[in-house]
Amino acid sequence: DAGITQSPRHKVTETGTPVTLRCHQTENHRYMYWYRQDPGHGLRLIHYSYGVKDTDKGEVSDGYSVSRSKTEDFLLTLESATSSQTSVYFCATGTPSRRSNQPQHFGDGTRLSIL
Amino acid sequence: GESVGLHLPTLSVQEGDNSIINCAYSNSASDYFIWYKQESGKGPQFIIDIRSNMDKRQGQRVTVLLNKTVKHLSLQIAATQPGDSAVYFCAEILQTGANNLFFGTGTRLTVIP
User: Which of B7, B55, B93, B112 is a good FRET partner for B29, with 20 to 30 A between their CA atoms?
Assistant: First the structure.
């Protein structure tokens, strides 16, 4: 959908290790987002970007950092993974419109397990 | 958003029937709402949106109704098909902005052939 590729699709790692998830888009959308999805919760925003090198925190940003050096790539890094960060991570993109800047296109997710 | 719990609310409908999925939102100041569909193993897919100055909006086989008085949103799917089986989320936005979108926990729709 909308040319969004997340990698890896699945990852298992150990507590305390660094983890980087990658989101690549081919649609030249200005906005990019990282969400996590957990049972009992709706999707929750971790960080978002409104342009190259322009990022901001979302609702659950603690323990995560992001970088956007090119329009098409948005990286999410867990500097020292904890078991509470076991989740499914979704990248999304969006373009400013008359209605909103909200995400309209999502990737298929990365399932991350931290043991 | 919708009630939070360990298990998603579920709705089962017969193929060909109409489906109505409900969502109660929490903030009376929310002025924009979106419905997403999520199939198993996939990311959410934008279905339809509505602004708070409207009470109804129609798309292809889908209609969203907004009742601001009781803070209720519904998604109606006409002539439900097996391909409509998925989890449906409503999301509310307090005001236009990239970090103000809040998702409900979703409703799992199962279409019985």
Answer: B7
Residue A45: strand pairing partners: A35
What's the rounded Cα separation, in Å, for the pair A55 and A68? 8
User: CA-nearest residue of chain A to B35?
Assistant: A104
Mean pLDDT of B82-98: 83
Q: What is the pLDDT of residues A20-77, one digit of tens each?
A: 999 999 989 988 999 999 987 889 999 999 999 999 999 899 999 999 999 999 999 9
**Which residue has 């909200």 as its token pair?**
A102
Cβ within 8 Å of residue B7, ≥6 positions away:
none
Task: Supply B73's token pair.
Answer: 């949103």
Give the Cα-Cα-Cα angle A81, A2, B98 (nearest 5 degrees).
60
Please tell me if residue B50 touches chain A, with a CB cutoff of 8 Å: no
Instruction: Say whether A42 and B1 touch across the interface (CB within 8 A).
Output: yes
| Whether the Cβ atoms of residue A33 and residue B43 lie closer than 8 Å to each other | no
CB contact under 8 A, A42 and B51: no
* Structure token pair of residue A17: 């290790």
- Residues near B68 by beta carbon (within 8 Å), at least 6 away in sequence: B28, B52, B55
CA B26/CA B67 separation, integer angstroms: 12
Tokens of A57: 């925190």
Read out DSSP for B23-80? EE-S-TT--EEEEEEE-TTS--EEEEEEETT-SEEE-SSEEEEEETTTTEEEEEESS-
